[in-house]
Amino acid sequence: MSELVSRMRRFGTTIFAEMSALAVEHDAVNLGQGFPDTAGPQPVLDAAIEAISAGRNQYPPGPGIPQLRRAIAAHQRHWYGLEWDVDSEVLVTAGATEALAAAILALCEPGDELIAFEPFYDAYDADAVLAQATLVPVRLEWPDFALDSDRLASAITPRTRAILVNTPHNPTGHVFSRAELEQIAELAIAHDLIVITDEVYEHLAFDEHRHIPMASLPGMRDRTITISSGGKTFATTGWKVGWVTGSAELVSAVMAVKQWLTYVNAGPLQEGIAVGLALPDADFAAIRAQLRSGRDLLVPALADAGFTVAPVNGGYFAVADAAPLGVTDAAQLCRELPERIGVAAVPLSAFYRDAAGAKSLVRFAFCKRPEVLHKAATRLRQL
To answer: DSSP per residue over 252-266, as a string?
Structure first.
């Protein structure tokens, strides 16, 4: 790593790669990485196959193919009542990961501060470092991982540029309520901050919980960059088709950076996602129900194994506390589980700047087929 710029040296091999390698080595059920093992909706797949077969395999337009941009705008209007101009306020990206990097690089000057709720998706910190900005964690506390607005307010300084909000939240499964989002919006408006939202699990809020886009709140449309993707909803994480919506000024800034990252991506796959976004509401309900059933299969097994499990209100993951099992180091437990019982998971410490008080917490993915989760449940109960 000696040739790597010093600011990036603390970002080595991810814990996800390490746990996945152990899962392969020990033929373990991999509940560590958050990718589905199903094929996704057939109309989505068929549209991409048809585009490939028809020869539409060259560079797509820089902002994304028109039919996908139209589908994104129609989707936002249908589900949330948000109106975006297709030509100036919608941008297609190489997944939400590129959208996040482009947004942070475009909007944060060196020395700016970016607030993110901890535990957080590890790319947030790396993107801030790439922009030579400073990520400021605001902790969400186990087991509810609810917003502490006083803690957020105290984290804001004259150098704060933006707040990054992820809901439904990875890794905790918390879905921010309207009241929580209104508190964030109030602070953003009062301090003239931009809000960058990661909404990739937008269609995976369970039970009585509902996803509310930050941009839909009063005063937030023109100060919010909304990021989402088709990967999590349509079980196509490998396609890397995401998007950004926001005011023309903000989207133009993100585009100015994005064009120097991937330039463009996944032309024929964009056609598949465009079809997916136009699927009937019932199809989205079925996708949500399938994920919810995975949660309802895994969470009782974790409880039977002796874990205490946090509420899982959305997304792909359940967070469990191994302290009742006498565990004080979840990272070590996760390195042992593939060989001991044939299940892989990741320690929640990977999502913290400072994991003090959270070192016994483990994240398990339930976005797997029922037979896979049944196998994992049987093995977990051996603990």
So the answer is: HHHHHHHTTTTSS--
Asked whether residue 276 falls in the same domain as residue 187, the answer is yes
Q: Which domain holds residue 111?
A: 42-280
Three-class SS of residue 282? helix
**Number of domains the chain is built from:** 2
The 10s digit of each residue's pLDDT in 31-79 is 998 999 999 999 999 999 999 999 999 999 999 999 999 999 999 999 9
Give the predicted TM-score (pTM) of the model. Answer: 0.97
CATH number at residue 369: 3.90.1150.10
Q: Does one domain contain both 292 and 267?
A: no
Q: What confidence tier does 2 reach under pLDDT thresholds 50, 70, 90?
A: confident
Q: Any residues with CB less than 8 A from the CB of 366 and at least 6 apart, and which?
A: 31, 291, 294, 295, 297, 298, 299, 316, 317, 318, 373
pLDDT tens per residue, range 326-359:
999 999 999 999 999 999 999 999 999 999 999 9
The verdict on residue 1 lying in a domain is no
